[in-house]
Amino acid sequence: MVDACTVKTVTGKSTNASTGVVTPTYSTLYTGKCKVQTYEPHERSPEVGGASVTVQRYAVHVPAEAFVPDVGQMVTVTACALDANLVGKRFRVVALLHKTFATAYRLGVEEVV
């Protein structure tokens, strides 16, 4: 793993008193090395609010037992050795891919834009 990321979990919400906009608050679970992959391209095009969007599935690998992963956590790529365009990309964990003898947690994620 030559890249780095931060994994956060939602801990609550905050409401802007003047605008009424509600935004989630986060707590950091992990900061360290990772790897981003498109292990098997799987895109879908759901209709949202009358518009079609494309959702691309990725996998983010982090060291096994680095933290307890859960669906809904947010992953932000903070450094990438081979593709500067990945830095700043945000992903939402949508699947936990467990296996025996794991050296890494392979998290099924979707990009958040």
Concise synopsis of the structure shown:
0% of the residues lie in helices and 59% in strands. The chain is built from no helices and nine strands.
Written overview of the protein:
A 6-stranded antiparallel barrel has the order 1-2-6-9-8-7. 0% of the residues lie in helices and 59% in strands. The protein is an all-beta fold. It contains no helices and 9 strands.
The residue-averaged pLDDT reads 89
Radius of gyration: 15 Å
State the CATH architecture: Beta Barrel
Helix-strand pattern? EEEEEEEEE
Total number of helices: 0
Beta strand count = 9
Biggest beta sheet attributes: 6 strands, antiparallel, barrel
Task: Please give the share of residues in helix.
Answer: under 10%
Number of discrete domains: 1
Give the CATH class. Answer: Mainly Beta
Strand content: over 45%
Q: Measure the end-to-end span.
A: 24 Å
Q: Shape, please?
A: globular
Structural class: mainly beta
CATH topology: Thrombin, subunit H
CATH homologous superfamily descriptor: Bacteriophage SPP1 head-tail adaptor protein
Spatial strand sequence of the major β-sheet: 1-2-6-9-8-7
Low-confidence stretches: none
Write the layout of secondary structure elements.
Layout: E1 3-15, E2 22-37, E3 43-44, E4 47-48, E5 51-52, E6 55-63, E7 74-79, E8 90-97, E9 104-112
Antiparallel strand pairs: 1-2, 1-7, 2-6, 3-6, 4-5, 6-9, 7-8, 8-9
Question: Keywords for this structure?
Answer:
single chain; 113 residues; mainly beta; Thrombin, subunit H; six-stranded antiparallel beta barrel; two-stranded antiparallel sheet
